Amino acid sequence: MEDVSEKLEYFKSVTGLQDHDLCTEILQAHNWDLELAISSFTSSTAPPLTNTAHHFPQQPQPPPPPPPPIPLAWKLIKLPVTVISGSLGLLSGAIGLGLWAAGGVLSYSLGIIGLGSSSASSSTAPLVSVSAATSEAMDFVAEFERGYGSIGTMPSFVSEGFMEALQRSRNSFRLLFVYLHSPDHPDTPLFCERTLCSEAVTAFVNDNFVAWGGSIRASEGFKMSNSLRASRFPFCAVVMAAANQRIALLQQVEGPKSPEEMLVILRRVLEESSPVLVAARLDAEERQTNVRLREEQDAAYRAALEADQARERQRREEEERLAREAAEAERKRKEEEEARERAAQEAAEKQAALAKLREEKAQSLGEEPEKGPDVTQVLVRFPNGERKGRRFNDTATIQSLYDYVDSLGCLETESYSLVSNFPRVVYGQEKLTLLLKEAGLHPQASLFVELNS
Fold first, then answer.
1. CA–CA distance from 315 to each of 7, 113, 306, 310, 325 (Å)?
2. Contacts of 444 (CB under 8 A, 6+ apart)
3. Angle at Cα 204 formed by Cα 203 and Cα 205, nearest 5°?
4. Distance CA 189, CA 146 (A)
5. How far apart are CA 65 and CA 78, in angstroms?
6. Biased composition, Pro residues: where in the chain (predicted)?
7. Sheet containing 82-89: which strands, arranged edge to edge?
8. Between 3.90.550.10, 3.65.10.10, 3.10.20.90, 3.90.190.20, what CATH number should domain 375-451 receive?
9. Measured over all CA atoms, what is the biggest interatomic distance in the chain, rounded to whole angstroms?
10. Does the predicted TM-score (pTM) go above 0.70?
């Protein structure tokens, strides 16, 4: 495993990731320490990764921590993976609101309440492209629905990338509920079935949050688990947009929780964040009102400024319009006259061509034979009820019957078939070369013209 390529291939086989660049980035971030890289990819409580050659022992897990106390703590997280550690208290009277919607900026002044030793880890790797992120989100929603519920019985996870979901929450003045799915974690199925898809939690999340979910096996879900420092699964978080491509981490929920515990945490986060959301909404509405007033004032000014110019412009436009209409009328008259001449000429040419064709087909039939044992009497009935008859030699072909019908000029269409009634036989293209005698039309036949649709 000392060889770089061998480490890379083994990491791919264990994690299931096939993105070469992503796997290289993860291993480089862990100084090519294979065991450390795999451990960071999976949850700390997941079963040990094994194969026939290597074993990575599972570390003993501490008991799940109790829910964080009030007041709510914020963490600023730089997307995609830089985390600014620290504990910033959220106090309703100590938050100075700035812009949070429209421009996507939230300014606030917070007292630092115990900034201890912390470290910031960063990576220059960007989040996956929008199309790839959307595809991963759609795959997650479909897989989650197949495994744990259906629309209406599970949180309404948006089928779009994390940044799009964050923008959606900002525009709708809601918090973003994030669920990072660890498919192989032993607590995941029970948490999804009994907590995340419970009727109370589902209804509360759908009514009050924009919900986004991602699998840590997918690129964006894995990167967000690193950004949010997810150390235990199941993992949920509540975040909101902040300035400079950062998010404010309002709450982390790590480890299995009952529906009641989850609701208590979410209600508390929502209650403590409501002043921020309400103030942001009012601020946006005030800006929209100011913009609308400015636009109305500008419109009134422009209307007054253009009033005098409009009358002169209308006079010139009226003169130009009359001139254009006169020229247009003359042009249309000439075009119509030319069109009539062309139509008359085309109709005459078409009639002449049809007449010539009928004459040629009549000549091809030759003289009508006299009655005799080798002569067939054919009667043809047209759709309008008209009947025409003629004698043919029994050695004539079905094509001769079509030529005869065409030579009469009784039809306005060239798409038709000759059909016998009893028994019904359609003498179509495949039978044109048959002799009348071979076709069973001797010594006499009664056919009718059937127009093709």
1. 82, 73, 14, 9, 15
2. 376, 377, 378, 379
3. 95
4. 12
5. 25
6. 59-69
7. 82-89, 73-78, 246-254, 235-241, 175-181, 209-215
8. 3.10.20.90
9. 123
10. no
Let me know: does 138 contact 183? Beta carbons within 8 Å.
no
Q: Going by C-beta distance under 8 Å and a sequence separation of 6 or more, which residues neighbour residue 277?
A: 173, 174, 175
Whole-angstrom Cα distance, residue 154 to residue 148?
8
If phi > 0 it is left, if psi is from -120 to 50 it is alpha, else beta; for residue 170 that is: alpha
pLDDT tens profile 225-264: 998 988 899 999 999 988 777 888 999 999 999 999 999 9
* 193 DSSP 8-state letter: I
Q: Which CATH number is 4-41's, of 2.20.25, 3.30.40, 1.10.8, 2.100.10?
A: 1.10.8
Whether 106 and 99 have beta carbons less than 8 Å apart is answered as: yes
Residue with structure tokens 């500008």?
A: 298
Rounded Cα distance, 406 and 110, in Å: 95
Q: What is the CA radius of gyration of the chain?
A: 42
Q: What is the pLDDT of residues 310-359, one digit of tens each?
A: 999 999 999 999 999 999 999 999 999 999 999 999 888 887 887 788 88
- Determine whether 209 is exposed, middle or buried from the number of CB atoms within 10 Å of its CB (0-12, 13-18, 19+): buried
Q: Is domain 73-285 classified as CATH 3.90.1260.10?
A: no
Q: Give the phi and the psi of residue 420 in degrees, each rounded to 5.
A: -100, 150
For 425, residues 6+ apart whose C-beta sits below 8 A from its C-beta are 419, 440
Q: How many Cβ atoms from other residues are within 10 Å of residue 64's Cβ?
A: 13
Using CA atoms, how far apart are residues 42 and 225, in angstroms rounded to an integer? 10
